[in-house]
Amino acid sequence: MEEYPYPIIVEGDWGPAKNLKNKLQIYFQSKKKSQGGDCVVQYNDGSDSATILFKSSHSRDGVLSKAEHIITIDSQQITLKLYKPSDVDEQANSTGQRTEQACGYQEANQSESSDVVLENLPDGVKQKVLNLLVDNISTLSANDFSMEFIPELRKAVVTFKNPSDQSDPQTELDVKKPQESSAVVLENLPDDINKDVLILLVENISRLYENDFSIELIPELRNAVVTFKNPNAAEKFLNDTRTHEKFKKNNLRAHALERSSCVRVENLPAEANNKMLLELYFEKWGGPVEEVILIPSEQAAMITFKEEEAKGRVLKQENNICGFPVKIYPYLKSLDTVLYGGNRPQLKLPETITVSVHPAIREFILNKGQISSIKDQMSSHFCHINMDKPEVFLCPDPALLKQKDITRQRINDWSKHTIVAFKKIISNYATSEWPMLPALWSKVASDVKKVVKDQVFTEMDASKGVLTLAGMTHEITGLKPTIENILERAKILMEKEQNSVTEYMEISPAMYFLLEQDGLKSAIAVSPHLHIGYNEKMNRLGLSGLQTEILMFKNWVLEKKVTMKQKPLQIDRSVLEFLRSVDCDEMSRDLFISHGITAVYTIENGDVVVVVGSTERAFNEAEKRINTVLTTKDLILEDQGVLQMPEWQDLKHLLEELFNTPKRTSVSISLSKQRDKITVTGFREPVKEVSENLGYFAEKHTRIEETVHVKSHAVVKFLKDRKLQEWQHFTRSNEVKVSFDSKRPWLKLSGKRIFVQQAMIFFKSLADGLYTDTLILQKPGAKKYFMEQGKMMLAVLLKEKRFVVVLQEDDMLEEKKGDFFQGSPGRVSSSSLGRHAMQGWNQKMFSRFDIEPAAFQLCGETQEDLSEARDMINSLILREHVIIPVHDPAIAQFTRKDVEMLNAIQRELTVSVQLEEKGQDSLITLEGLTRDVYTAESCIQELIGKVERREKRRCEAFLNSSLVQCQYQENGCSATNLDMLTKYKLKQAYPKIQPTMRMKLNKDKYLAREETTRQRLGIELHRDLKVGAQSPLPSHWEDMKGQPVVLVKLIAGSKEYADVVKEFRRTNLTSNIIEIERVQNSALWKNYMIKKEELEVKNKHTNNEKLLFHGTGPDKTDQINHHGFNRSFSGMHGAMYGNGSYFAVDPHYSAQGYSKPDVNGYKRMYLVRVLVGDFTQGKRGLPVPPAKSSNSADLYNSVTDNMTHPTMFVIFNDVQAYPEYLITFEEGRARARARANINPWINPVYSAHDLFW
Asked: Which segments constitute the PARP catalytic domain (predicted)?
């Protein structure tokens, strides 16, 4: 029977009955009879029980929910007892033990302990609830145990007086037979029936006396419940009603009252408003509770028990919850009502309500016939309305109690709902009052009555001086402005009759214009008799009218001024020019007013845009609109010739006419002073369209010049000479002009953009297909040869070749690394050694000299072409190159000056000089061009002759020293022998009878004068006081011939020139030197030397001098040459470390930052001797160097920018610097070095001057 899985066991005292199984099947399958459904019956004959198997649990539960089941078998009514099979098992096996799932418990001790711990208690549980819980579980009274509640641990400890009480009690479950229902429900009773009539009706049908039953009449349901003392009498009464004529004639119905396990608890105290508390209470005094429903608003609760007997137990006893007595009544779910027994409360009509209504509204309602409509509306709320008296009475309609679904709550809510409904109706009416003097009423009465007509109720109370209008709300609202206007006009007329005044206000045109846009007309309309007039020339507003009108208008203007926001805007210069070029008022209307923004703008001081807004918000919107709506667009003109085209002028005029009208300017087009930029300014969309049209035209017709960068100068020449036929078609149409640069590795293309771009692609393609290389010859004289006679030879040979060779000259500029548009630089080839210098004997005397290499740029169409070019160049130089040795014993006697002469020969003739010391076999080897080598050999032979003469004189001096003894005596000291050469010079001078001779002894200068005595020939020595008193001028200076300042141009190739160049290029400065001049200023020099001696004494060391650099402009050199450096000019170019004169360690710094070029692009820089002495860290604003210690007057001599790695020094005493050399140089392109047009070997300059003093 898997299809019928829901069984019920049925028991009954039916004895041996026929067809019992069928009767049970019919009964439990009937929804009407048993509330059951589809089922099968299992029954064994002779048994007093049967099993009913239902197909659905819903059918089974419906059967079990019915309070009583009675079946008729053999004319006998048999009450059936129903239960589930599981209930039988539980009744048979259960010990009655109960546990509480919500709260666990554990015994405090496994031994005989009287304490039990309750754990996991709910957060809000109270001790009263726990007491009831223990009562219910233990079946003990509160005196049999004590409890300690621990809420923070959610625990409680229960201590039983008898330890055996803590175990759960075991109870026997009694399976009781359900009681038969003894109550009958009478339905569909007449509205006017009373209890006495019902009693007689029941007596007639049941044949019982009034004491055998009781009746509870439920008039609001038109029902009554009859409860019989004998249940069998109830069953018989039901059967008799089915055949009773009067019962049927009055259409009455009767059925058995269902068994109910629900009660209603009333008068509950606030403390008992707790589900768990009520559940535990009624479980204790009644039985298991199925559901608790709280009704706090009625101080009541609905309790549903699991079994009906529990309800009977609580109804029979007096109940006190939390110390308060409560009322408990049975509740019938089918009737949705409570049975109160004989004390059922009777429903009464609520009390009459009194409300107040404005007297004028009451009169309007009564006079205009509105009362009937109100009564009809209130009747739906069971209310009669009475407005005969000033107070309105709302009376309940008796029909309220006759409503079928009337309840006590609905009756209680009647007053509230009625008042709400009445107020809603009255809200459709309104009043309006105005203070009114009789005199004013006499003027406006006719106008008011003419306006209101019969629409509203009008009342003038002269005693109170009040005019009242009453009527429908919309009518009063519509009439109120009209009445107020009538009254206001009448008041004005009355006031105007007394006096009128005229006043003036100072208002700017912009402010007046803004007021016009911000409600000026509306403000005047409020005062129709006020007359205003604005004088724009005088910036004055005239006001004529009543004083109150004028004051009100002034207040309005003042309020507007207070709320107005005014501020100058920082906007683009082009937008400013646009706003200035148009009418401010018209543009303000266009920009702001037409878009609902009450703001204007003005131009102040010719170049400031000031925006005035009526409010902060209006100002912000105006500022935002200017920044978003107006814009400017610049078009850069690459070709100004576009402006001269007639088509350009036509397009410009067309666009201006298209977007501008006589009254409205949307866009302006302007040209910069340099005529290289077009500026389009105005509204965003017109600016966009105009700039696009002009830009397209300019782009289309612009002539441009583009540069095509190539790898080398050889590529330029190859493209020009060897590829002429391939690119010449560009120039034939005159669309593109091609220019080849002879100094830079590029070519330039000029013409219209579209043609130039095509030509660029073509030339780049040609250049990409070429091979390049660089050949460097570092043989002495190679570059010189190819720049002179070899140049012509090379040109002749190249005519028949497929490649191009270009000798790289000094003024050719190379592209910086990374600027080539194609490939990587060509391979570099090198021939011979890279540097020739003097080697061998006395090597330290020789300076390093770099032979300038000859660099050739090669270009061809194949690698074989480049290889052939290299071979050709090498063969040419080899034919002109020679090596010659010079042997002479005098070479071993060369002095420092002789070595310097060799260095000069090497530099001037670009030959290699190698010196080898081998005693009598010493050798000088010369290498270079044939002509130069033989010239160098001639110079060296002359130098050898001078060495031989010098050695001869030294030998004569030695011989003289053995024959003549010379001594000198100074300051009474012992005599001292003169050296050999000095004695020789004196001997040579004596025969010539020279009166005096200058000579040096121990680095001091003396005047020697002959003195003859009888005993001997003597020479008197006198210290040269003039020389001793003053610092001597450098010995290498030229004769100044009495001039205070002389500039001496240094000879390129000289030792002095080379030393200055070396300092100049010490940090790889590649600028090209034009000339170097020695500054000879005797006064500055002597002062400088005196200061130098002073610092050496003061600082107790000689390391006080440095060679530094100072860049300047061409207009400052005369001042510096004559007067030295002037610290008064400090700060003109920066004074970060003090207010003094600045000198750089690195010439780069001076060359780039402070050497200003002249018209020829030449720059100037001084190589300066600077006495830095003892120095320290500088800082801004120093007038003098800091003191060496806090309590010392001894100052540092200078300051620097960085003590660890100084890059500049600052001096504060002008005599601490001497401008020794003025270097003129240029950046960016090389110039051929000027060579001295003299023969240095005929008049050589021997200088003992050392640059580093």
From this structure: 1031-1246
Report the percent of the chain where pLDDT is more than 90. 20
CB-based contact 476:483 (threshold 8 Å): no
CA atoms within 13 A on the CB side of 427: 6
Residue 1194 Cα to chain centre, angstroms: 56
Cβ-based burial of 988 (10 A; exposed 0-12, middle 13-18, buried ≥19): middle
Please provide residue 245's backbone torsions phi and psi, each rounded to the nearest 5 degrees.
-65, -50
Instruction: Report whether 185 contacts 221 (CB < 8 A).
Output: no
Question: Helix or strand or coil: residue 901?
Answer: helix
Q: Tell me the C-alpha distance between 289 and 304, whole Å.
A: 6
Output the DSSP codes for 956-1017: HHHHHHHH---EE--TTPPPEEPPHHHHHHHHHHGGGT-SEEEEEETTEEEEEEEEE-SS-E
**Out of 503-517, 599-613, 743-757, least confident range:** 503-517
State the pLDDT at residue 1196.
Answer: 93
Radius of gyration of the chain (CA): 66
Query: Residues for the chain: how many in total?
Result: 1253
Q: Which of 653, 739, 736 is nearest to 693 (CA)?
A: 653
Q: What are phi and psi of 461, to 5 degrees?
A: -100, 100
CB atoms within 10 A of CB 44: 9
**Side chain identity at 255, as an amino acid letter?**
H
Q: Which of 92-106, 621-635, 1016-1030 has the highest mean pLDDT?
A: 621-635
**pLDDT of res. 345:** 72
The two structure tokens encoding residue 457: 């109720």
Q: How many CB atoms lie within 10 A of CB 766?
A: 17
**Mean pLDDT computed over 1225-1240:** 47
Rounded to two decimals, what is the model's pTM? 0.34
Token duo for residue 825: 């630089």
SS3 of 399-460: the string is HHHHCCCCCHHHHHHHHHHHHHHHHHHHCCEEEEEEECCHHHHHHHHHHHHHHHCCCCEEEE
Could you tell me the strand order of the sheet in which 104-107 lies? 104-107, 115-119, 155-160, 145-150
Using the CB atoms, write b or e for 364-388: b if 16+ within 10 Å: bbeeeebbeebeeebeebbbebebe
Q: Around Cβ 816, how many Cβ atoms within 10 Å?
A: 7
The pLDDT tens digits of the residues spanning 188-247 come to 888 778 888 888 888 888 888 888 888 888 877 788 898 888 888 888 888 888 888 888
Whether the per-residue pLDDT at 165 is higher than 60: the answer is: no
Residue pointed to by tokens 């002389």: 1046
| Model pLDDT, residue 102 | 35
Q: What is the reported pLDDT for 745?
A: 92
Question: What CA–CA distance (Å, rounded) separates 641 from 628?
Answer: 34
CA neighbor of 807 nearest in space, from 882, 911, 877, 890: 877
Query: Phi/psi of residue 326, each to 5°?
Result: -125, 160
Q: Give 905-937 as a 3 state SS string.
A: HHHHHCCEEEEECCHHHCEEEEEEEHHHHHHHH
247-273: per-residue pLDDT in tens? 888 888 888 888 888 999 988 998 888
**Torsions phi, psi of 81, nearest 5?**
-110, 125
CA distance 828 to 914: 28
Sign for the CA dihedral angle at 1071, 1073, 1074, 1079 comes to positive
Could you read off the pLDDT of 366-403 as tens digits, one per residue? 888 888 889 899 898 889 999 888 889 999 988 887 77
- Contacts with 699 (C-beta within 8 Å, 6 or more apart), sequence order: 753
